[in-house]
Amino acid sequence: MLLETFATLPASLLVTVSNKEKAFIRASRVAHLATTDKNGHPHIVPICYVLDREDLYSPIDEKPKRSAPLRLKRIRNILTNPHVSVVVDRYEDDWTRLAYVLVRGKAQVLTRGGKHKRAVALLRKKYPQYRAMALHQRPIIRITSTHCNSWGTL
């Protein structure tokens, strides 16, 4: 079953993430992915991820889940509505250090191919826990940025 849900976006729709935003995104270990179902109901989950150029990749890893990988709510939502948001934030009690980067984009579910293989390698490099997991056999969410904004001192 081919799960890649959209064609390559035209260059006019792609958004450049600034170098400061990229550095902030890369430095964090967790983000939050927001999807919506066909009725517009939001679903937000924490994710592990990696940034590669302008794309974010998040695996459906082997941590315990309530459903099979392709039956997870976030996957079903992406297949119905590929528009997603990801927020990477920093909270500190010193509120002068609060910051976030918000990426909106189009998601697709990868199950194989060159981008899937590269994402697996990058995820294993960032998260040592993934080195023992069969990520190469599991779906990976690819998010291509269409809008990015940030706030605070990155």
| Widest sheet, order of strands | 2-1-5-6-7-4-3
Query: What profile does the largest beta sheet have?
Result: 7 strands, antiparallel
> What is the CATH architecture term?
Roll
CATH class: Mainly Beta
CATH topology value: Pnp Oxidase, Chain A
| Number of separate helices | 3
Rg estimate, integer Å: 15 Å
N-to-C order of helices and strands:
HEEEEHEEHE
- Low-confidence parts: 1-13
CATH H-level superfamily: Electron Transport, Fmn-binding Protein, Chain A
- How far apart the termini lie comes to 41 Å
According to DSSP, the number of beta strands is 7
Q: Which range best describes the helical content: under 10%, 10-25%, 25-40%, 40-55%, 55-70% or over 70%?
A: 10-25%
Number of separate domains: 1
Query: What class would the helix/strand composition place it in?
Result: alpha+beta
Shape: globular
Mean pLDDT score: 89
Portion in beta strands: 25-35%
Structure description:
With 154 residues, the protein is of the alpha+beta class. The chain has helices at 19-27, 73-80, 114-126; strands at 31-36, 42-47, 50-52, 55-59, 83-90, 99-110, 140-152. It has a single domain, classed as Pnp Oxidase, Chain A, CATH 2.30.110.10. 19% of the residues lie in helices and 34% in strands. A hairpin with a 5-residue loop joins β1 (31-36) and β2. The chain is globular, with a radius of gyration of 15 Å. Residues 1-13 have low confidence and may be disordered.
